[in-house]
């Protein structure tokens, strides 16, 4: 599904990713761990198509060159990024945003757009699965939401848009144990043979709930070690300094 | 330099000789300075003289005869209405209300041509004004439906100037929602100069809306003076995008305790449109509140100006005054000028002011795009969000929906 070959990324003359290789197949869960400044969030930004990066190397998504697609096209084709810091957007109603988003994706995929009533029924259902109070949906997007509420809102968007590749950028940060469990349940219930996950995290914590097939250690812009779920557990005990 | 205007009192019919003299005096005072220019501090960001010079060959006045004209009635909500055509009152309908509670008539110009305001447009209005209306609401009467004032202008006003005065009085414990609705889509350039005097007596409240309905080549100036008595409320919403030029010059006098005033405005300016909101809020007595929030989105070569002054008299303790102006500048050629001012002589007050301007937040755009929303729509959503926030405090209902729909149309450039 995703094939990254020798990816380099530079921003403001800082060389951050220095030849990263990664292959993800449908149905797989990959975790990327690494110390601060290793390039984890840059990888997420680059995959989502954020402006400002100078890119070298090759990123193929289902055989298509990702770099040639705009951010919205990537989303329409099934790439989803759960933001580390979801943005607060004053004046934009959460429901309106969610419906515009879903209908943009549906339209691009050649499906019929949902009318307001059908949409509201769907979103209420999805929100209650994640324990999100309906009244959040009529508030301004992420404005005044707690850290946990923002992250749940990201997972809600994921479940609504049903992407093929979901990238979770430090989704566990700022979550208490209960919220962490709800988020993990949300991810686990969406996991199937067709879709894949790339989970970016500092800590093993989230991986206790979402079991990865592969754990990669990112350091100074490169993947320096790959293992199975046990690698995450080991890192938690020994820290990065023994590996890096 | 050659004058680009030519005004004549004798074009106005049926004046007494006394009135003619007074009007002539006013016209002379206007001619001494002409239209205001940037040397005048109040006009330093909106040099009306050169704006008119660049857009008019010769501006003249005319005594517009009232004539019936067809216009589209708003269908979204039930309302009373007054219809003005080129400033003249031509029809009215208060069928939702009790009889004898509302007095509506042509503005009476006798004794109303005083020389007390030193502003050349004020003199010009005194000299040339005809038409306009006087509205008075009886004590203890709350209108059941809002009042729409249709400001219709004919399509043949090329290079003409329309001057008129309105007066609105809310007697004790009365209530009114008034919607000033500007309706003209003429390509011709014309100018409108309105003086409006509002008196809100004890325990009364007035919600005053201004909406422009279509792109129009009119140059508008309105001087709105209001006086508030004890426990009264005055709320203003200005959504006047689409006019070529507009300056709202607003004076609010909080004369008795516990009176409240607010001004909300959301403007989306395009091409070379130019709009200014100038306010002067006089806290003349203790325990009054005033609130101002003015938001502008500036596209192309448009210009947005906000000059806001809060004046607090020495006796006006426990004043609570707030003022905020925000602008989103979307093009390098667009301009935003703000001059917030506080002049405070009391020592126990809560006053704050702020002004920000910036471009659109690209991280927010990226966030919306990452959810599959196309770039153009993402921008539209953020602009909508920025401006529609102005309507948030308005209670839910048909008027709010109507305003929101109009504002969204203004944002989409009609």
In short:
The complex is a heterodimer of chains A (244) and B (414). With 244 residues, chain A is an alpha/beta fold. Chain A is 36% helix and 29% strand.
Count of helical regions of chain B: 6
Give the spatial strand order of the biggest sheet of chain A. Answer: 6-9-10-3-11-12
**What is the end-to-end distance of chain A?**
29 Å
The number of domains of chain B is: 1
The helix/strand order of chain A is EEEHEEHEEHHHEHEHEEEH
Tally of strands of chain B: 21
Oligomer: heterodimer
Largest interface: A-B, 29 and 24 residues
Mean pLDDT over all positions of chain B: 93
CATH fold naming of chain A: Rossmann fold
Please, could you describe this protein's structure?
The complex is a heterodimer of chains A (244) and B (414). Chain A has helices at 40-48, 71-76, 94-108, 116-129, 134-137, 147-161, 177-190, 229-238; strands spanning 2-11, 14-24, 29-33, 54-61, 64-65, 79-82, 89-93, 140-141, 165-169, 196-201, 214-219, 222-227. Chain A is α/β, with parallel strands linked by helices and 244 residues long. The longest helix of chain A is centred in the middle third of the chain and has 15 residues, at 94-108. Chain B is of the alpha/beta class and 414 residues long. In chain B, the strands form 2 sheets. In chain B, strands 1, 2, 5, 6, 8, 10, 12, 14, 16, 18 and 20 form an 11-stranded mixed beta sheet that branches. In chain B, strand 3 and strand 4 form a beta hairpin. In chain B, helix 1 packs antiparallel against helix 3 (120-128), helix 4 (362-369) packs across helix 5 (375-388) and helix 5 (375-388) packs across helix 6 (398-411).
């Amino acid at each position: 599904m995703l094939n990254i070959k020798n990816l380099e990324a530079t921003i403001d003359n800082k060389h951050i990713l220095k030849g990263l290789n990664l292959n993800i197949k449908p149905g797989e869960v990959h975790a990327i761990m690494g110390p601060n400044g290793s390039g984890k969030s840059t990888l997420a930004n680059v995959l989502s198509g954020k402006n400002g990066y100078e890119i070298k190397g090759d990123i193929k998504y289902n055989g298509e060159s990702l770099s040639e697609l705009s951010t919205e096209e990537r989303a329409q084709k099934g790439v989803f990024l759960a933001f580390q810091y979801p943005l607060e957007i004053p004046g934009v109603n959460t429901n309106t945003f969610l419906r515009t988003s879903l209908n943009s994706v549906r339209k691009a995929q050649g499906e019929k757009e949902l009318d307001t009533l059908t949409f509201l029924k769907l979103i209420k259902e999805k929100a209650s699965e994640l324990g999100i109070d309906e009244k959040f949906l009529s508030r301004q997007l992420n404005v005044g939401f707690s850290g946990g509420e923002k992250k749940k809102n990201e997972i809600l968007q994921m479940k609504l848009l049903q992407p093929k590749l979901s990238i979770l950028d430090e989704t566990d940060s700022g979550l208490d144990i209960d919220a962490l469990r709800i988020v993990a349940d949300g991810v686990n219930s969406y996991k199937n043979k067709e879709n894949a996950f790339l989970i970016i995290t500092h800590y093993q914590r989230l991986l206790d709930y979402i079991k990865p097939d592969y754990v990669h250690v990112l350091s100074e812009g490169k993947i320096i070690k790959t293992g199975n779920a046990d690698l995450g557990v080991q890192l938690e005990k020994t820290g990065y300094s023994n590996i890096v | 330099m050659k004058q680009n205007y030519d005004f004549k009192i004798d074009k106005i019919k049926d004046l007494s000789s006394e009135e003619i003299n007074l009007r002539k005096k006013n016209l002379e005072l206007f001619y001494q300075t002409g239209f205001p220019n940037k040397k005048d501090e109040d006009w330093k960001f909106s040099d009306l003289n050169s704006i008119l010079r660049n857009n008019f060959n010769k501006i003249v006045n005319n005594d517009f005869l009232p004539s019936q004209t067809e216009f589209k009635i708003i269908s979204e909500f039930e309302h009373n209405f007054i219809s003005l055509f080129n400033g003249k009152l031509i029809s009215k309908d208060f069928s939702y209300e009790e009889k004898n509670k509302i007095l509506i008539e042509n503005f009476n110009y006798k004794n109303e041509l005083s020389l007390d305001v030193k502003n050349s447009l004020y003199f010009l209005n005194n000299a040339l004004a005809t038409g306009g209306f006087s509205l008075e609401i009886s004590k203890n009467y709350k209108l059941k439906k809002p009042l729409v004032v249709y400001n219709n202008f004919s399509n043949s006003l090329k290079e003409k100037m329309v001057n008129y005065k309105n007066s609105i009085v809310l007697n004790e414990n009365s209530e009114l929602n008034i919607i000033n609705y500007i309706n003209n889509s003429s390509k011709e350039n014309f100018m409108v100069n309105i003086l409006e005097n509002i008196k809100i007596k004890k325990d009364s409240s007035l919600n005053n809306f201004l909406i422009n309905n279509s792109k129009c080549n009119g140059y508008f100036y309105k001087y709105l003076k209001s006086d508030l008595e004890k426990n009264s409320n005055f709320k203003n919403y200005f959504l006047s995008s689409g006019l070529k030029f507009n300056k709202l010059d607003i004076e609010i006098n909080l004369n008795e305790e516990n009176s409240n005033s607010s001004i909300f405005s959301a403007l989306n300016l395009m091409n070379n449109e130019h709009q200014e909101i100038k306010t002067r809020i006089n806290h003349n007595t203790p325990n009054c509140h005033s609130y101002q929030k003015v938001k502008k989105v500036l596209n192309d070569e448009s210009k947005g100006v906000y000059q806001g002054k809060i004046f607090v008299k020495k006796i006006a303790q426990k004043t609570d005054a707030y003022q905020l102006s925000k602008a989103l500048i979307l093009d390098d050629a667009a301009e935003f000028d703000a001059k917030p001012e506080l002049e405070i002589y009391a020592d126990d007050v809560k006053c704050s002011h702020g002004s920000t301007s910036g471009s659109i937040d690209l991280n927010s755009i990226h966030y919306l795009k990452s959810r599959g929303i196309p770039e153009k729509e993402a921008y539209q959503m953020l602009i909508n969000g920025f401006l529609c926030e102005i309507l948030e405090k308005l209670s839910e209902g048909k008027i709010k929906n109507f305003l929101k729909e109009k504002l969204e149309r203004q944002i989409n450039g009609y």
